[in-house]
Prior knowledge:
CATH topology: YaeB-like fold
Oligomer: single chain
Number of helices: 3
CATH superfamily: RelE-like
Radius of gyration: 12 Å
Strand content: 25-35%
Amino acid sequence: MRKLDFTKEVLKFLQLLPPKQHKQVVQAIFELLKNPRPHDSQQLRKSDNFFRKDIGEYRIIYQFDNEVIFIYLVGKRNDDEVYQKFKQLD
């Protein structure tokens, strides 16, 4: 069984979400444990190892291997802020 690993930024972001959105995003993250490549996930362009999954108005940026799913970013889908932050991680 895989484990989850979060960045500090993701944990802070999740704490600030309203309860309904928090539940939706956390549930989607835990579903990645069962299937890290759900049908609605997409591999990020110009990246061999990173994927995105959309949940309502939020986007999860993650990476996985056989043991761990690394949750790097969670942010709003309707702006490019999540991708700007992602570029800073590279």
